Amino acid sequence: MRGRGRDRAILAVIFVFVLTAAFIDYPQIWNDAANRLNPKIDAAVQKIGGEKLAWRVGISQFPTAFFGRTLEEFTLGLDVQGGVQMIYDIDSSTVAQGDKEEALQALRDAIERRVNFFGVREPNVILERSPGVDRLIVELAGVSDPAEALAIVQEAPFLEFREEGEAPDPQDPYFGFVATGLTGQHLKRADVVFDPNTNEPQVSVTFNDAGKDIFAELTRKNLNKRIGIFLDGNLVSAPEVQQEIPSGQAVITGFIDPQTGAPSIDIAKEIARNLNAGALPMRINLVSQQQVGAALGQEVLARTIFAGIIGFLAVVLFMLIVYRFPGVLASLALVFYAILFIALFKLIPVTLTLAGIAGVILSIGMAVDANILIFARMREEMASGKTLSAAIDEGFMRAWTSIFDSNMSTILTSVILYLVGTSFVRGFALALGVGVILSMFTAVFVSRRLLREFSRFRYLTVPWLW
């Protein structure tokens, strides 16, 4: 009896989790029920004289966040939702060879911060390396206007600090500045401040630890010389160094409105915002741009989902015909698996691409693989004369090693594909890996409890059913 009570308690917890996951998948079910019931609850409370308490009674809307994650609609990838893909050549000539790898990663991160800052959900920013050519691929799902996409990426300014060369041209105050290696890569944050004497807007920039050391050395060796501050190749300020600055802070001035000729706080704010969104450590040049229409993606998505439904029903039908009552329980566990899988995709969240959806569909078939091994072992044990309860326990024990080995090999393959694959391969690998891990839980943990619970009902122990 103690084991039976424990199994029922575990099943109750599982049902609560699955029910919660179902509402996470589609919270409108809960909200519609609440909207229908709340007027009746209020009316019932008022009828018994509880007018003052009526406002406290009722069913609230389903939570909009779980575990710090906001529940939103599923995030669709470029191939499903449509959007814009841009390919840029990377100009790494201003970066030392030894710092190139770090600068390329900083560039990717800066672009990703940039598009996130402007509200583009789940951007895909990829570095593509080949001998002699470095390229950046930016995919913005849901952005239909190519001009908007270009603005989101290219408004990110290239910040650079340069020092005077050996022989600057005295006739041209902007000539002769040379690169120092101190760029937006080393920026920590930027803020709008005001000159205490003139009250003109300025942008104060703070460097990270590496940039702080470079800036201190730069100011130390350039005493009584100018340091040029360039944004996108344009000189915006060239202050003279009066003393070494070890604090890692600098000020950019000269934000003049070209129309009025007066200092502009709006321009200063825009520069600070763009720098915080991602000052680029290297220049990028657009070489290719293409727009992916949403209509084609939606058509393929509808066909893929239809294929997934057919595959799901085919698996259920196979389990019912071949394994009878255990097949019914395996199908129930498969439904639990699908509900939990979708909830995980919303909570993580995972961007749904066509490749990722293919991984989901494949994992549905693999989700019953463990059940087939278990049920085959169970039948062997029952054929040897063991009771149904003993056959269930022995079947799980004998099948576990095979289940663990086969699933671990799939998980390891998924990890490798995710680490070294392209964006589409990574989407497939993530969906497949998460699906296999979840299938181990539903097949081994959930199915076992269901089998043990229902095997205790005498009218379900007919040998033909098993």
UniProtKB/TrEMBL annotation:
It is a multi-pass membrane protein. It comes from the Bacteria. The keyword Transmembrane helix applies. It holds the Pfam family SecD_SecF_C. One of its GO terms (cellular component) is plasma membrane. Residues 180-281 form the SecDF P1 head subdomain domain. Belongs to the SecD/SecF family. SecD subfamily. Forms a complex with SecF. Part of the essential Sec protein translocation apparatus which comprises SecA, SecYEG and auxiliary proteins SecDF. Other proteins may also be involved. Part of the Sec protein translocase complex. Interacts with the SecYEG preprotein conducting channel. SecDF uses the proton motive force (PMF) to complete protein translocation after the ATP-dependent function of SecA. This is Protein translocase subunit SecD. It comes from Candidatus Terrybacteria bacterium RIFCSPHIGHO2_01_FULL_48_17. The gene is secD.
